[in-house]
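Lab notebook: predicted structure, single chain.

Context: the supervisor wants predicted structures on file for every construct in the current expression panel, including those that have not yet been purified. This is the next one on the list. No modifications to the sequence; it matches the entry in the shared construct table.
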Amino acid sequence: SYVLECWYSSPLTEVQLSEFVGDGKIEERPTGDEGDFPGPHCIVPSGMRCILDPLLNDGIENRILCNQEVVKVSRKFNQNGKIKESVVVSTSSGLVVEADVCVVTIPLGCLKDAIKSRNENNGLFHPNVSVEKIQAINALSMGCYKKVFLTFSEIFWPVHEPFIGIIRTEVETTDSSAWLGDCLFIDNIWTRNGIPSFEVTLVGKAGKCSVSKSDKFIRENVIKFLQQAFFENSSTFSVSDSCTDCHITRWEEDRFSKGAYSGYILGTQPHHTEALNQSEWNGMLIFAGEATSDEYEGSVHGALLSGIEASDKVVSILEKNNRE
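Prediction complete. Output recorded below exactly as produced.
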């Protein structure tokens, strides 16, 4: 059950029953091993930047405008009310760009904020996107998934196991760390980097409860959990004294992501992903990103493949405009 929470970055109570057993009532999802390619999971030693490098080798990086926050995307009409085939993108700095087509790749969490208001003076899209698109955005989940990286002066955990599941005995509800539950998942960084460090994953209820909590609060409670799980509160070793550094991811609090990655929850159907993937405004407004992938949502390859699909749509629109 904890693995399912990790996969969907949602509490178990929000995960569909069909993910445990098929009941024949939920729309059949596309084939594939839960969005993964065959084979073991791997670490990219040089980081995800190496995935971008081949895409930027034609000089396109020099044409990317950074630090330009988009505040409005408009469909342009002419004076006669006839649709002009253009999209106008406005940024907070005052920059205005008019284009034949616009590809929207912002995370699902930001899309959820963008469609909250249909007031023409607010919101991101003018006019707003279709009702089907709004329903899709609301139906999909943007999960909470925090990584807590802890470095220690000495190793007190099994050194040869790359992944470690730890369980503590029943904890009183009055315990300050009760919100963490009774099990945690550890990615043992020592096994591949030789650094006395590991990553603790907070997902499900623990992931949600950790949002907006201070680093100090999260660190203290995770360390308390580790102390209870490894040493049963014994005073023979202090996990807290051994901890020399801590870093916590903040994707949920980041206003440009508002969550970790998308996933299915109760009520989500494959047709919602299909609707999110559909273009708007007579094809001029194209949507891409991992959340639009019906097979690989929540993954880097899902985002990459959706980008390839979006590029094909752009070419199709431009060719159509040239013919007209």
